[in-house]
């Protein structure tokens, strides 16, 4: 999915895949899997694909664990002076707001 997003440079490409994943997140076990997957993505991936995937789930579910994880990481990047990652994490955290401007990029969130 991340490769597809990076190559197409469009959230419209992965929106159906993300929506399908959401339909599978009905059990606590699935939620734990998605939590560990998102944390893995945050640690191991770079690029806009990371941002869009996290924005999608952040807006859709407003998970407290995810917001807290992003905030802790953001504070670490600020201390390290990693401005690129600071901005990326600020953008991801914006998706937790009701008036998130980029929600229109994801048709399944409408």
Quick overview:
The chain has one domain. Helix 4 packs parallel to helix 6 and helix 5 packs antiparallel against helix 6. The model has no long low-confidence stretch (mean pLDDT 88).
Q: Can you tell me the residue ranges where pLDDT is under 50 for at least 5 consecutive residues?
A: none
The proportion of residues in beta strands is: under 5%
Domain unit count: 1
What would the principal axes of the Cα set say about the shape? Answer: globular
Which structural class do you get from the secondary structure elements?
A: mainly alpha
Topology pattern, helix = H, strand = E: HHHHHH
Chain-averaged pLDDT: 88
Please estimate the helix content: over 70%
Our count of helices gives: 6
CA gyration radius, whole angstroms: 13 Å
What is the distance, rounded to the nearest whole angstrom, between the alpha carbons of the first and last residues?
21 Å
Largest beta sheet, briefly? none
The tally of strands reads 0
